[in-house]
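Run Bifunctional NAD(P)H-hydrate repair enzyme through structure prediction, thanks.
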Amino acid sequence: MHIVTAKEMYDTDRYAMEEMGLQGHLLMENAGRAVATAIKDQVSEEDQILILVGKGNNGGDGFVIARTLLQQGYSVEVLQIPNDEEVQGDARTHREIYEAFGYGYRRFDSVDSLATLSSRKTVIIDCLLGIGVKGPLRSPYDEIVPHVNQLDAKVISVDLPSGVPADEGVSFEGAIQADYTVVIQYPKTSAFLQHTAPYYGDWKAVDIGLPDHLLRGRNKGCSVWTKSDVVASLPEREPFSHKGSHGKGLVIGGSIQMPGSVTMTSRAALRAGAGLLTVATVSKVISILASSVTEATFIPLEEQEGRISSVEGIEFGYDGVAIGMGMGRHREGKELLEKVLKLSESPVLIDADGLYALKGYLSEVKSRSYPTIITPHPGEMAHLLDVSIPELLEKPFHYSRQFASRYGVHVVLKGAFTLVTTPDEKQWVHTTGNVGLAKGGSGDVLAGMLLAMVMQPQTVELALNNGVWLHGSTADLLTEQAHSTYDLLATDLIDGLSKTYRTI
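Sure, done. The structure for Bifunctional NAD(P)H-hydrate repair enzyme is below.
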């Protein structure tokens, strides 16, 4: 499923009309009917429905929705907010068709009259403002939106909640708080931003017949990674394969203060499918690990104050390396990471404390001949970028693309919607996972799973996306069947991964 900016949506609409001959009023008819079908799943024939229409395409969609629902026996009233002369183009055409069918509509004159009309309604359908909105709401929408938000009625928005911008990094003040949003054709970027996604409520995208190949053919772009993508791309194990066929991995990390993180990473890598795994850490951690990661082998490293001080003794003949989990933040960290990146002739995944060491080595990373993967949470990513966390969360797509391209790395930006970005600026959003993952250790488990994935016969971008999807889906499966979002632990993910594999 593609994710689009406002410009990409406008360009697709324009191409469909100008180059492919799909007339605007036909697209609007398709959109309104598709949205009406989706709305029927959210309402009953007993509901009293009020549709609020604006002057743009969203308003035109509203007239098609109203006509479609009225024809099918639903109780619907329409309130047009702008003056009649302000409604132009395809929206005006569909208002005239609506009237030709014998249906009437009310005209907005004040919030008081809206209050009287809406007080008897159980469902409000928001067709007020579209994808071009920016900045604070103007009159009368600055009064209408707060009124709608305080109603007891169920609120359904069309395409996106009125007042919410389509794109990232766009300021806004006030928006419809929808219970449900029916997205037209493609979800917009704002559906995946931490500060705007809650306005959508639950949402569903409906197809209106736009030329999907335009977006599929772009060199860059953004999509949602789905179960069907995993099923199509996750490598099948050959019947005559052996442990060496499934990847020989190395995990470097851990300290006497933080032995758990490297333990979880190692166990997750093995459970996710790594054929062989070696853990390089300080001697005291090995004694802790040996009883819980019995399938791994170990390399004791030089230590200072209970933490790794050197990677001497490691022969880098591995198919993948993960470094940083529980390593600690100290001045030797940059030197350790620098040696690993120079000596390793395979993908290197950098997580946790390794990301703090990376900041002093960024200028050299791009020259690597092998993939480099970073897996930051927003705080770690903001630190690497020298921006505040709020700045990052306002524009995560932009900052991830910028960083991945500048330094030639793959970025897995963790969050409610984990974002995977490649050095050539392709992006995928993940919607699996839940708040149960907001626990210490979840990132360590993900790092191990990703290490296992990059060692399988698939591209790095497929490996990262499949690993993130499996991680989130395991949390979803466990909270549906055996756990709550309160009690779910990172170690539960490791043990529950086998259930997820069986579902695909």
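The mean pLDDT is 95.
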